[in-house]
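Appendix B, example 12.
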Amino acid sequence: MKKTISPLLKLGIIVSVIHTLTINFITPIPDFLSLTILMVAVALIIVGGIKSKYKDKAD
């Protein structure tokens, strides 16, 4: 039984890593934009985690 990772989960992690790298090494991002980006990333991670959890149970 191989565990699969949802593409939404991968996308959420990539968005949060890019956000962190941008803030630390490239340029500061305004707070309202930063919060929006991170809220989307967290939502993607949660949905992707739930989706992969139910997909693994079905297999």
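Residues 7-58 form one domain. Residues 21 and 33 are 15 Å apart (CA to CA).
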